[in-house]
Design a protein that fits this description.
Largest sheet: 6 strands, mixed
Oligomer: single chain
Strand content: 5-15%
Number of helices: 9
Number of strands: 6
Strand order of the largest sheet: 3-2-4-1-5-6
Order of helices and strands: EHHEHEHHHHEHHEE
Length: about 190
Protein backbone atom coordinates (compact mmCIF):
# COMPACT_ATOMS: atom_id res chain seq x y z
CA UNK A 1 0.00 0.00 0.00
CA UNK A 2 1.35 3.43 -0.86
CA UNK A 3 0.29 7.02 -0.39
CA UNK A 4 1.82 10.45 -0.47
CA UNK A 5 1.48 11.69 3.11
CA UNK A 6 4.65 12.26 5.13
CA UNK A 7 4.54 11.11 8.74
CA UNK A 8 7.34 9.84 10.97
CA UNK A 9 7.88 6.09 11.10
CA UNK A 10 5.20 4.43 13.23
CA UNK A 11 5.12 0.93 14.68
CA UNK A 12 1.52 0.05 15.45
CA UNK A 13 0.63 -2.81 17.82
CA UNK A 14 -2.93 -3.99 18.24
CA UNK A 15 -3.57 -5.37 21.73
CA UNK A 16 -3.58 -9.15 22.11
CA UNK A 17 -6.77 -11.19 21.98
CA UNK A 18 -9.16 -10.48 24.84
CA UNK A 19 -11.76 -12.68 26.48
CA UNK A 20 -14.45 -10.70 24.62
CA UNK A 21 -12.59 -11.01 21.29
CA UNK A 22 -12.69 -14.78 21.80
CA UNK A 23 -16.46 -14.60 22.44
CA UNK A 24 -17.12 -12.37 19.41
CA UNK A 25 -18.32 -9.61 21.74
CA UNK A 26 -18.04 -5.92 20.79
CA UNK A 27 -15.79 -4.10 23.25
CA UNK A 28 -15.57 -0.54 21.99
CA UNK A 29 -14.51 1.37 25.08
CA UNK A 30 -15.63 -1.28 27.58
CA UNK A 31 -13.02 -3.42 29.31
CA UNK A 32 -12.04 -7.08 28.85
CA UNK A 33 -8.77 -8.73 29.94
CA UNK A 34 -6.33 -10.46 27.62
CA UNK A 35 -7.01 -14.16 27.13
CA UNK A 36 -4.14 -16.66 27.47
CA UNK A 37 -3.75 -16.42 23.67
CA UNK A 38 -3.73 -12.62 23.98
CA UNK A 39 -0.83 -12.83 26.42
CA UNK A 40 0.99 -14.98 23.84
CA UNK A 41 0.26 -12.32 21.20
CA UNK A 42 1.86 -9.64 23.41
CA UNK A 43 4.85 -11.90 24.07
CA UNK A 44 5.29 -12.38 20.30
CA UNK A 45 5.24 -8.60 19.93
CA UNK A 46 7.82 -8.26 22.71
CA UNK A 47 10.24 -10.41 20.73
CA UNK A 48 9.77 -8.21 17.68
CA UNK A 49 10.03 -4.96 19.65
CA UNK A 50 13.54 -5.37 21.08
CA UNK A 51 15.45 -3.93 18.08
CA UNK A 52 12.79 -1.25 17.59
CA UNK A 53 12.92 -0.11 21.22
CA UNK A 54 16.73 0.04 20.97
CA UNK A 55 16.20 2.96 18.54
CA UNK A 56 14.59 4.99 21.34
CA UNK A 57 11.18 5.76 19.81
CA UNK A 58 8.44 7.64 21.65
CA UNK A 59 5.79 5.20 22.93
CA UNK A 60 2.08 5.96 23.27
CA UNK A 61 -0.61 3.64 24.61
CA UNK A 62 -4.41 3.70 24.77
CA UNK A 63 -5.85 4.17 28.27
CA UNK A 64 -7.98 1.03 27.94
CA UNK A 65 -6.85 -1.93 30.06
CA UNK A 66 -6.25 -4.41 27.22
CA UNK A 67 -3.82 -2.02 25.51
CA UNK A 68 -2.12 -1.17 28.80
CA UNK A 69 -1.72 -4.89 29.59
CA UNK A 70 -0.32 -5.53 26.10
CA UNK A 71 2.10 -2.59 26.41
CA UNK A 72 3.45 -3.80 29.76
CA UNK A 73 4.35 -7.12 28.10
CA UNK A 74 5.32 -5.99 24.58
CA UNK A 75 7.29 -2.90 25.63
CA UNK A 76 8.91 -4.43 28.69
CA UNK A 77 10.33 -1.68 30.89
CA UNK A 78 10.16 0.99 28.19
CA UNK A 79 8.30 4.04 29.54
CA UNK A 80 5.19 5.10 27.63
CA UNK A 81 2.66 7.91 27.57
CA UNK A 82 -1.04 7.12 27.91
CA UNK A 83 -3.11 9.18 25.45
CA UNK A 84 -6.93 9.19 25.54
CA UNK A 85 -7.07 9.76 21.76
CA UNK A 86 -5.82 6.17 21.32
CA UNK A 87 -8.98 4.61 22.82
CA UNK A 88 -11.02 2.36 20.54
CA UNK A 89 -14.11 3.63 18.73
CA UNK A 90 -16.98 4.20 21.13
CA UNK A 91 -19.57 1.77 19.78
CA UNK A 92 -22.65 3.08 21.60
CA UNK A 93 -25.41 0.57 22.29
CA UNK A 94 -23.44 -2.21 20.56
CA UNK A 95 -20.80 -2.30 23.30
CA UNK A 96 -21.03 -5.56 25.25
CA UNK A 97 -23.17 -7.30 22.61
CA UNK A 98 -22.07 -10.14 20.35
CA UNK A 99 -22.32 -9.64 16.58
CA UNK A 100 -25.21 -12.14 16.63
CA UNK A 101 -27.06 -10.05 19.22
CA UNK A 102 -26.54 -6.92 17.10
CA UNK A 103 -27.86 -8.80 14.05
CA UNK A 104 -30.97 -9.84 15.99
CA UNK A 105 -31.68 -6.47 17.65
CA UNK A 106 -30.57 -4.11 14.83
CA UNK A 107 -31.01 -6.16 11.63
CA UNK A 108 -31.07 -3.20 9.21
CA UNK A 109 -27.88 -1.63 10.60
CA UNK A 110 -26.18 -5.03 10.72
CA UNK A 111 -27.13 -5.93 7.15
CA UNK A 112 -25.93 -2.58 5.80
CA UNK A 113 -22.57 -2.73 7.60
CA UNK A 114 -20.93 -6.16 7.23
CA UNK A 115 -17.42 -4.99 8.22
CA UNK A 116 -16.53 -4.17 11.84
CA UNK A 117 -15.32 -0.62 11.22
CA UNK A 118 -18.58 0.34 9.52
CA UNK A 119 -20.75 -1.55 12.01
CA UNK A 120 -19.15 -0.04 15.11
CA UNK A 121 -19.30 3.45 13.62
CA UNK A 122 -23.00 3.02 12.73
CA UNK A 123 -23.94 2.18 16.33
CA UNK A 124 -26.73 4.28 17.84
CA UNK A 125 -25.27 6.61 20.51
CA UNK A 126 -21.76 5.77 19.25
CA UNK A 127 -18.88 8.00 18.26
CA UNK A 128 -19.37 7.69 14.49
CA UNK A 129 -16.70 7.47 11.82
CA UNK A 130 -16.01 11.18 11.28
CA UNK A 131 -15.33 11.93 14.95
CA UNK A 132 -13.27 8.73 15.29
CA UNK A 133 -11.11 9.55 12.27
CA UNK A 134 -10.69 13.16 13.43
CA UNK A 135 -9.41 11.97 16.82
CA UNK A 136 -6.88 9.65 15.17
CA UNK A 137 -5.76 12.28 12.66
CA UNK A 138 -5.33 14.80 15.49
CA UNK A 139 -2.97 12.38 17.24
CA UNK A 140 -1.12 11.54 14.03
CA UNK A 141 -0.50 15.12 12.93
CA UNK A 142 1.11 15.90 16.28
CA UNK A 143 3.87 13.30 15.82
CA UNK A 144 7.34 14.54 14.96
CA UNK A 145 9.59 11.54 15.69
CA UNK A 146 9.56 7.75 15.21
CA UNK A 147 6.76 6.43 17.41
CA UNK A 148 5.37 3.18 18.81
CA UNK A 149 1.58 3.08 19.25
CA UNK A 150 -0.25 0.38 21.21
CA UNK A 151 -3.98 0.63 20.63
CA UNK A 152 -6.91 -1.20 19.05
CA UNK A 153 -8.07 -2.97 15.90
CA UNK A 154 -10.39 -0.38 14.39
CA UNK A 155 -8.14 2.44 15.59
CA UNK A 156 -5.28 0.79 13.74
CA UNK A 157 -7.32 0.27 10.58
CA UNK A 158 -8.05 4.00 10.40
CA UNK A 159 -4.46 4.97 11.29
CA UNK A 160 -3.07 2.62 8.63
CA UNK A 161 -5.62 3.84 6.11
CA UNK A 162 -4.81 7.50 6.70
CA UNK A 163 -1.07 6.87 6.33
CA UNK A 164 -1.50 4.67 3.25
CA UNK A 165 -4.05 6.98 1.59
CA UNK A 166 -6.97 4.54 1.63
CA UNK A 167 -10.67 5.28 1.32
CA UNK A 168 -13.00 4.47 4.20
CA UNK A 169 -13.97 1.24 2.39
CA UNK A 170 -10.28 0.40 2.02
CA UNK A 171 -9.71 0.99 5.73
CA UNK A 172 -12.67 -1.23 6.68
CA UNK A 173 -11.32 -4.06 4.49
CA UNK A 174 -7.83 -4.11 6.06
CA UNK A 175 -6.78 -7.26 7.93
CA UNK A 176 -6.71 -6.79 11.67
CA UNK A 177 -4.11 -9.17 13.10
CA UNK A 178 -2.91 -9.60 16.66
CA UNK A 179 0.59 -10.67 17.70
CA UNK A 180 2.32 -8.72 14.90
CA UNK A 181 3.59 -5.18 14.36
CA UNK A 182 2.48 -2.91 11.53
CA UNK A 183 5.43 -0.75 10.45
CA UNK A 184 4.16 2.38 8.70
CA UNK A 185 6.52 4.67 6.83
CA UNK A 186 6.52 6.77 3.67
CA UNK A 187 2.88 5.98 2.90
CA UNK A 188 3.38 2.22 3.02
CA UNK A 189 2.82 -0.65 5.44
CA UNK A 190 4.96 -3.65 6.27
CA UNK A 191 3.77 -6.37 8.67
CA UNK A 192 6.47 -7.64 11.05
CA UNK A 193 5.92 -11.19 12.36
Amino acid sequence: MRAGMAYPKIWFLRHGQTEWNAEGRIQGQLESKLSPLGIEHAQQQAGLMAPILAQGPACYVSPLGRAQQTARIALGHQPFITDARLAEAQAGVFQGLTRQEVAAEYPEIYAANPLNLDLFCAAPQGEGFDAFQARITDFLTGLSEPTVVVAHGLWGQVLRGVICGLSRAGMAALPNEQGCIYQLYNGSEQVLR
